[in-house]
């Protein structure tokens, strides 16, 4: 069985660890999180790594370099998923990192090699993304303990129930001097590599993101007896907002999505008194993102004035755009070249990644793999075995290139 076949088979094994019998769903601090950590931990151990679960619920593996206690090159991605997920977003990167560590287990490197399976990149349970990688980056915010899931369980409570001590979350933080850099392999989650007929690409920068919860309040009234001119229809206001979000973001060249809406009271014969929406906004740079948000917010408030509605908004997530470190991108490009691609494609990532959190403490580099039709966050997500095989070779060579450059630069 080729390494690529092993990696793909293991993605299938992780598929079976799901909170739902009908779709793939594995979220933060759940029994499925624990099972996936245990399975990935076994694979890390078989790859010759010393394995532990850190204070934030990330599963970690480490092999020392030429001498003990050296700074580490981190490889990784995430093991959590969105609801009704595909098999590769996150998991492929963790399994490729484990496979590369296994391939290199008898190679003495000038640094320690670590693999991390991050616990919560998606933010699907508590709304705040990158909880695992932000703990590693030391950018944890105590306010997050009060975040609640849809069953009203706080993050603090969930930590305790998972067997973690909220007071020790800081133990997961790594210092910049402990690290050489971070490399992540990930499916592109977009159509551009496939359009260019390219197996692999290197990431130039990762989009800056902001997420909001928008609550629109009007007045629930009788659907028959209430004349139009007396209505304060929260759902109609929300509908106008959703269309305005798309219009303004497209005009600004940014990427905005309303992925969730909840309406109250939600009865067929009652005018909606309240509508709660999610908003996900991204752009290649933070100034573009923030300018777009200012325009959107202004229009949302104008719609509320016109319709006599109230708008309450809470920002639930913000992550700065994260440019990749030139030397790590060059190593990724060198790795891709060894697979026969003389002109590796560079592209900015419209999707967010743990790398954007880790960028706070060390340089980052990302290797993208083509995925079919750019489909992701959907069970039809798929990769070609040949691209995984090339990706493994490129990833392995990128690590060796980092080692060569790092060794050269050492005093
Ligand atoms: O939302 C994203 O971009 C990532 O897949 N979490
Ligand atoms: Mn995702
Ligand atoms: Mn991902």
Structure notes:
- α1 (3-15) runs antiparallel to α3, α2 runs parallel beside α3 (91-103) and α3 crosses α11.
- This protein is globular.
- It has helices spanning 3-15, 31-46, 91-103, 131-136, 155-162, 192-195, 234-252, 286-307, 326-337, 354-358, 385-409; strands at residues 50-53, 59-63, 72-78, 112-118, 179-187, 200-206, 208-217, 221-222, 255-257, 261-264, 270-271, 274-283, 310-319, 322-323, 345-349, 364-369.
- It is of the alpha+beta class and 411 residues long.
- The chain is 35% helix and 23% strand.
- The strands form 3 sheets. Strands 1, 2, 3, 4, 5, 6, 14, 15 and 16 form a 9-stranded mixed β-sheet that branches. Strands 7, 9, 10, 12 and 13 form a 5-stranded antiparallel β-sheet that branches. Strands 8-11 form a two-stranded antiparallel ribbon.
- β3 (72-78), α3 (91-103) and β4 form a beta-alpha-beta unit.
- It folds into 2 domains: 3-207 and 321-409, Aminopeptidase; 209-318, Alpha-Beta Plaits, CATH 3.30.70.360.
- It contains 11 helices and 16 strands.
- One manganese (II) ion (MN) is lined by residues 78, 89-90, 121, 186, 353.
């Amino acid at each position: 069985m080729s390494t690529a076949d092993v990696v793909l088979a293991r993605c299938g094994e992780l598929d079976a660890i799901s909170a739902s019998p009908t779709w793939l769903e594995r979220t933060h601090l759940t029994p499925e999180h624990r099972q996936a950590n245990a399975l990935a931990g076994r694979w890390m151990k078989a790859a010759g790594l010393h394995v532990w679960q850190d204070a934030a619920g990330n599963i970690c593996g480490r092999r020392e370099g030429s001498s003990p206690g050296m700074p580490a090159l981190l490889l990784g991605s995430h093991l959590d998923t969105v609801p009704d997920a595909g098999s590769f977003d996150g998991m492929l990167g963790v399994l490729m990192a484990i496979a590369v560590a296994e391939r290199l287990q008898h190679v003495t490197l000038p640094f320690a090699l670590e693999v991390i399976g991050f616990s919560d990149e998606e933010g699907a349970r508590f709304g705040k993304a990158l909880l695992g990688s932000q703990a590693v980056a030391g950018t944890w915010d105590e306010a997050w303990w009060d975040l609640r899931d849809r069953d009203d369980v706080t993050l603090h409570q969930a930590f305790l129930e998972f067997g973690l001590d909220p007071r020790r979350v800081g133990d997961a933080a790594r210092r910049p001097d402990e690290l050489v850099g971070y490399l992540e392999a990930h499916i592109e989650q977009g159509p551009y590599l496939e359009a260019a007929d390219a197996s692999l690409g290197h990431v130039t920068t990762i989009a800056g993101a902001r997420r909001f919860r928008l609550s629109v309040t009007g007045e629930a009234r009788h659907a028959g007896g209430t004349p139009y001119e007396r209505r304060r229809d929260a759902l109609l206001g929300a509908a106008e907002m959703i269309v305005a979000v798309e219009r303004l973001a497209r005009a600004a060249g940014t990427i905005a999505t309303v992925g969730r809406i909840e309406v109250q009271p939600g009865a067929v014969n009652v005018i909606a008194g309240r509508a709660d929406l999610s908003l996900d906004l991204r752009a290649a740079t933070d100034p573009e993102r923030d300018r777009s948000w200012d325009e959107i917010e202004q229009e949302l408030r104008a719609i509320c004035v016109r319709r006599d509605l109230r708008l309450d908004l809470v920002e639930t997530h913000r992550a700065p755009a994260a440019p990749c470190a030139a030397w790590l991108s060059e190593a990724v490009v060198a790795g891709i070249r060894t697979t026969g691609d003389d002109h590796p494609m560079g592209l900015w990532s419209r999707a967010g990644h743990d790398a954007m959190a880790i960028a706070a403490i060390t340089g980052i580099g990302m290797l993208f793999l083509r995925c079919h039709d750019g489909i992701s966050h959907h069970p039809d997500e798929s990769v070609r075995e040949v691209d995984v095989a090339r990706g493994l070779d490129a990833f392995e060579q990128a690590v060796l290139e980092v080692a060569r450059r790092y060794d050269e630069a050492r005093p």
